[in-house]
Amino acid sequence: MRILVIEDEPRILAFLARGLEAEGFVVDGASDGVSGAKQAARREYDLVILDLLLPRLDGMAVLRDLQRQRPELPVVIVSARSDLDTKLRGFGLGACDYVSKPFSFDELLARVRAQLRHGRPGEDGNVVRAGTLSLDLARRQARLGDVVTELSDREFRLLHHLVRHEGEVVSRERLLADVWGYHFDPRSNVVDVCIRRLRRKLGADAPIETVRHGGYRVTAA
């Protein structure tokens, strides 16, 4: 599922993008109201997370525009403005939910998933798949065929990243940045160690390929 985050604070935008991507979503970002409204009109999104205090075009104007062009698109407002009048105005313009800053990411994630489940009845948004390999995002488990495997947080995040980019070669440097963060030693072998653990846990049919001088790739098992 693809989510658009319209937020002018780079730190918050990066935090939301990395957190949502770790949970299996594809995330696009926009740092002002004009570009956010254009992106929402140009691409197909499953949900929008919208700040209100935006440059160039404020969030309420963006919300009004989205309601006119894409009334079926769920919008969750995340804003430092927590007064009742602003909340009521946001709901009146078509927002599905409202989260006040500062916020808990876990709470926001739960609200996002609730909106996506509501919009897509019967769809399980907690599972991502690559062939016969599936990842349960809620339980942090991997299933390959009939075998269910418990994974550590790093193992799960690494495998999840590869599954989301099924068929693509993902470099060690990119995995280090996206799974371990940007403060890392590029000479570290933690990625290779984690891959070995994953293969051992998943067994001989683990669909993780090593691409020489490239990185790693998950193929449909």
Describe this structure in words.
- This protein has helices at residues 10-22, 33-42, 59-69, 84-92, 105-119, 153-164, 172-180, 190-202; strands at residues 2-6, 26-30, 47-50, 75-79, 97-100, 127-130, 133-136, 141-144, 147-150, 208-211, 215-218.
- The protein is α/β, with parallel strands linked by helices and 221 residues long.
- The chain has a five-stranded parallel sheet, sandwiched between helices.
- Helix 6 (153-164) crosses helix 7.
- The protein is elongated and about 60 Å long.
- Residues 119-123 have low confidence and may be disordered.
Provide the succession of SSEs: EHEHEHEHEHEEEEHHHEE
What share of the residues lie within helices? 40-55%
Distance between the termini: 22 Å
**Which sheet architecture does the biggest sheet show?**
5 strands, parallel
Instruction: Please count the beta strands (DSSP E, at least 2 residues each).
Output: 11
In terms of DSSP E residues, the strand content is 15-25%
- Rg of Cα set: 19 Å
Strand order in the largest sheet: 2-1-3-4-5
Could you tell me the mean pLDDT? Answer: 87
Mass-distribution shape: elongated
Helix/strand structural class: alpha/beta
Poorly predicted regions are 119-123
The DSSP helix count reads 8
